[in-house]
Amino acid sequence: MVRYLKTIEKFYNKKVDATGLAIFRMIYGCILFCVVLELLKYRHLIFDEIPYLRFSNIDYKYVLILWLIVIWHIIMGLFTRIATIINYVLSVVFIATINNFGNHVFNIMVTINFLLMFISVARVYSIDAVIIKIQSPINNIRSSNVSVLNYYSLVFMSLGLMYFSSIFDKLFVDYWANGMAIWTFFSIPSEFARDNFSFLLNNKILTQGLTYLSLIFETLFLFLCFRRGTRVIMLVVGVLFHMGILFCFSITYFQLTFLSLYILLIPFSFWSFLKLKCQYRHKTTVFVVAGYRWSEQLYQLLLSIDVLNAFDCKFGDKTLLMVNKSVKGKMIYIKVSDSYIHDYKQIMPYLFKRIPFCMPFVLVIGISRIRAIIVNILKLIFSFKIKSTNDDNEAYLKSYKIKTIASILLLFVILQGHALLDTNFARKIHLPESNIQIKGLARAFFGVTRHNVFTYDYMNSNLKIFSVGISYVDESNEKWLPLTLENGTVGSYKKGLCRTRSFYSNRDGVLDSLQLNNYVRDFTAFWSVNNDIDLDSANFNVYVKKVRMYFNWEKDRYQKSRSIPWTNLGRVVWKDSTYISQLNH
């Protein structure tokens, strides 16, 4: 245990550039924003007993809008610590309790959202960092470096444990062990494959090689991703691996979340190199005259937002700054060639043009009322009070932080080990079953669970996949709903996070009548209201095709699966907002 704490302390003391964390914060925040936006879009399908007709007891609209606002604060880095706490609470309330929406990515997001509360993701490139800089004395330099544990903890708990634990399922499923997993799922256009990749599927050796490569990569990742000599290799292989899945499978947010985590594996020296290459070669001299209200804050603001080193900022008395005496008394001047710009109407557009993320302000800065609003916002920022940890407190809290970090890491490992009791490996050697209470709490609060992605036990049970197609029938034509389309490929509903409800199967090999009708009822009601179809009188045809899972390679399996004919189950009718089933089941 002492050696373990020493290792944690060693990593804690290693300081690296915080730029990667800031980039991750913004990109992951955008992905999470889109996920919550989709929750808001499909809330009636998810929460209503019958979409738009029999509402849930709680209107989740305003809570989800609040969540979007909180995520925006995280992206911008404003009141980040408070925002990450609220974000975690909301993710537990929604993500961990929804069973008919989303996919395995929600477990990873709960883990990330938990860790964001403790990680210094807003040290640089955030409004918090700007405010702290403004409030600091002029000569005070706040370090932009953070402990490397901020990076390693996210990679270890989100990627490392997930990859490693998934091996205990995959290696004990036949179609993974014989290298047919990628070929098997790519060959099902109605549920998994985004497009036709027959040029890849018709090469048996290639698809087997890719399957085995993914197994080797996931097995070794945890042991090689933190080593300097192999870190870049893991980064490149992992990015290519997930980019391939992103383009081939209809699980977009799943792969985007994983790709955002790989930002944390980019070598720290890369960010310094990138900043050096993006800097302006010729700086603009900006004079900020001391003695005016807000002059010190304005000087600190320019320094903190000048990420491309575009300005040579000088602060002091006007006489010491050697500003031309003929210029009227102003707080800020910009020297251009041998002349000075001192009019605020000219200064603000000039400054904003040199700072890329301020470019949108250039379009509106000419409007006096908007310019006044921007000035007032800046004054408000100058008056914010955000507590910054000083060096004395940091030294005092160091031992407590190390013990806390060590405890959290150990807890995750123990919980992940407990989750392994549900894997195919555990069943093979007859280990005891997991505790259902511990399993539920671990998944809900930490996102720790069994990572059995694409390890469904199709071969050893009667499980069948039924692709359900629904079409709206009017007087002139038949329009298919964006579930499984008429041509046998996935529609837009299946490409989003509501694909969990679109994936229709049961373990008895029989199409369950009650589940089928609930499925058709909910999607027809949801689609109709969103497409201005009157539920007082609407007719839909329902089709089904039984998709067989193939585990022995054959050529052109994708086209054969796609050409499986639809079986017409009959019609369903909405009459006076009442669902009437006429299915011949």
Descriptive account of the structure:
- There is one protein chain.
- With 585 residues, this protein is an alpha+beta fold.
- Among the domains are: 120 residues, no CATH class; 103 residues, 3-Layer(aba) Sandwich (Glutaredoxin), CATH 3.40.30; 120 residues, no CATH class.
- It is 53% helix and 11% strand.
- The protein contains 26 helices and twelve strands.
- Strands 7, 8, 9, 10, 11 and 12 form a six-stranded antiparallel β-sheet that branches.
- A hairpin with a 2-residue loop joins strand 5 and strand 6.
- The longest helix is centred in the last third of the chain and has 29 residues.
- The chain starts with a helix and ends with a strand.
- The model has no long low-confidence stretch (mean pLDDT 83).
> What integer value in Å does the Rg equal?
29 Å
Q: Tell me about the biggest sheet?
A: 6 strands, antiparallel
Oligomeric grouping of the chains: single chain
Strand residue content: 5-15%
Output mean pLDDT: 83
Assign the structural class, choosing from mainly alpha, mainly beta, alpha/beta, alpha+beta, or little secondary structure.
alpha+beta
Summarize the amount of helix as a percent range.
40-55%
**How large is the count of helical segments?**
26
Low confidence ranges: none
